[in-house]
Amino acid sequence: MNTKARSLVLLVVVVLLALGGAGGYGAWAYARQQEQSRAPSEASIASAAAAGPLIYFRNTASGQGQGLVATVPVGDPQGPRTLTNQACDRIYVAADRRICLHAKIGLANTTDEEILDADWHLLRTRTLDGAPNRARLSADGTLAASTVFVAGTSYLGGFSTATEISASDGQSFGNLENFTINIPGVTLTAAERNVWGVTFAHDGDTFYATVGSGDRNWLVRGSIKQRTLTAINTGVECPSLSPDGTRIAFKIKPADPNEQKTRILAVLDLATGKVTTLAEGRNVDDQAEWLNDNTVLYGLARGAPAGDSDIWSVPADGSGKPTLFIEHAWSPSVVRQ
């Protein structure tokens, strides 16, 4: 056997061993996941759904029900949770609609975006290119917004996003990067712009979002009908409009130049432009949700085990201190009626 033939045989053996090892690891990982999914849940599970206003969220407690959408009463957030049969990486609920984002891991990461009715019947689905990041519905459930990462894994490094708004009955209004962007004194090419973190006003046309380019961010007011994004403030990430439509909760860099990779919570008064820093000083990698006009909710990773997190609350006027709101939970949305 010549040298070339021996090299080819060696290459084949190495590939087969690698594939066998990968297959063995895959089988072990699957068995481990199945074992964990059958273990008792860390969280207390209710035997029946509660009545009244609810908070929907992704259950991150290990054991049975991990990754499923769950609910707790607004008045008893630390009480037993009710599990649904729906698994989501991001969930948002408004009126009689639900938007659910599922990650599909492969050679090219994609996301299944599902719109469901109040009984979790699938109304429509489509596949987005990228990993799930943000999901929002308008208060009446007629408009949906999804953001996916098409490169990178975090706002703290290089990344690229794709954000689309669509009607929950199916019509897409396209990638927001293709809207006309109006920022006084600034011109951004298509390659320089990212748009993410949509929050809807109540008129069926207006929304707010973040436009980012490098280390610069702007809060923009968008119009679906005019296909425009107009800057109204700077330094704002992941806006969330208050129920009364007067303020926006968002993430901002702290004043300390040594903490430039941290994002803390603040609230912008749309009428006066006043910015109030909230009492949460830890790094928040989430889009806030309003519990009511006085309180903001947000998720914080636990660190260990990987994938676990909690939902916290903090007063929207800058007073008080953060409070643990729902343990082992992520991606909250509040249904008030």
Describe the overall structure.
The structure is a single chain. The chain is mainly beta. 11% of the residues lie in helices and 47% in strands. The protein contains 1 helix and 25 strands. A 5-stranded mixed sheet has the order 12-16-15-14-13, with no helix packed on it. Strands 3-2-1-25 form a 4-stranded antiparallel sheet, with no helix packed on it. Strand 14 (206-213) and strand 15 (216-223) form a beta hairpin. It starts with a helix and ends with a strand. Mean pLDDT is 87; it is low at 2-34.
Descriptive keywords:
mainly beta; 337 residues; 5-stranded mixed beta sheet; 4-stranded antiparallel beta sheet
For the CA atoms, what is the radius of gyration? 22 Å
One letter per element, helices H and strands E, the order comes to HEEEEEEEEEEEEEEEEEEEEEEEEE
Overall pLDDT: 87
Work out the number of β strands: 25
How would a crystallographer describe the biggest sheet? 5 strands, mixed
Give me the side-by-side strand order of the main sheet: 12-16-15-14-13
Helical segment tally? 1
Q: Spans of 5+ residues with little confidence (pLDDT < 50)?
A: 2-34
- Cα distance, first to last residue? 78 Å
Based on CA inertia axes, which overall geometry fits?
A: globular
Structural class: mainly beta
Strand content: over 45%
Helix content: 10-25%
Question: What is the strand and helix layout of this fold?
Answer:
Blueprint: H1 3-38, E1 54-59, E2 68-73, E3 82-87, E4 90-94, E5 97-104, E6 110-117, E7 122-129, E8 131-137, E9 143-151, E10 160-167, E11 172-175, E12 180-182, E13 194-200, E14 206-213, E15 216-223, E16 228-234, E17 237-241, E18 247-252, E19 264-269, E20 275-277, E21 289-292, E22 295-301, E23 309-315, E24 323-326, E25 329-335
Parallel strand pairs: 12-16
Antiparallel strand pairs: 1-2, 1-25, 2-3, 4-5, 5-6, 6-7, 8-9, 9-10, 10-11, 13-14, 14-15, 15-16, 17-18, 18-19, 19-20, 21-22, 22-23, 23-24
